[in-house]
Amino acid sequence: MISLRGLLMGNLDRPWMLWSLFAVNLLGSIYGFYWYKEQLAATASWLNLFVPDSPTASSAFTLVLLLYALRRRSPLIEAFAAVTLFKYGVWAVAVILLGGMAAPVPFPDSLRWTDWMLMASHTGMAVEAILYSRFFTYQQRHLMLVGAWTLLNDGMDYLLDIHPWLPASISHLDGVIGLFTLGLSLVSLLLFALLGLSPRKERKWEYRPIGI
């Protein structure tokens, strides 16, 4: 009997799955940029590139899915999507939970439906990054470029105070959150060095590469 896990893994790169996840991630990315509209408007335009962290990550993964559906691949975009999708997926869930636990009301009352929706969607982001890492074809140089960008983004977020707005209950902990974010960046880079650089028969080497 085929297990549920085996059924899932066997369908990850099927066209119907790629196009379905493409649609879901595309809609989620559009909503994510809309979610940041007020912070983008309140931030100097030259810094806006560093503001919408999660939708930028999900947009990169959306592009990875599109390329796979067209039998193409971009190792650099794969590396960017893997690291940032996992990092910001975990980050958002952790921050929302911490904000709820620090709120002056009972935990179940501290979270709105949008918080649960965000936790579900960001958990999905992190899971997608891990599941699809079996197909990625990036190399060490791609991870190094993504690492440089990721650490630059962390510096911009917490030195210039343009990180995603925190729940009011933990807004005074931005320094601690900054250290957590930096640590999460390093963990994400290490994780996807382990997952993405090891030999696997599933990697999409046969797809035509675009870019570097």
From TrEMBL:
It comes from the Bacteria. Keywords: Membrane, Transmembrane, Transmembrane helix. The chain crosses the membrane at residues 16-34, 80-104, 116-136, 143-160, 175-197. The keyword Transmembrane applies. This is Uncharacterized membrane protein YpjA. InterPro entries: DUF1405 (IPR009845).
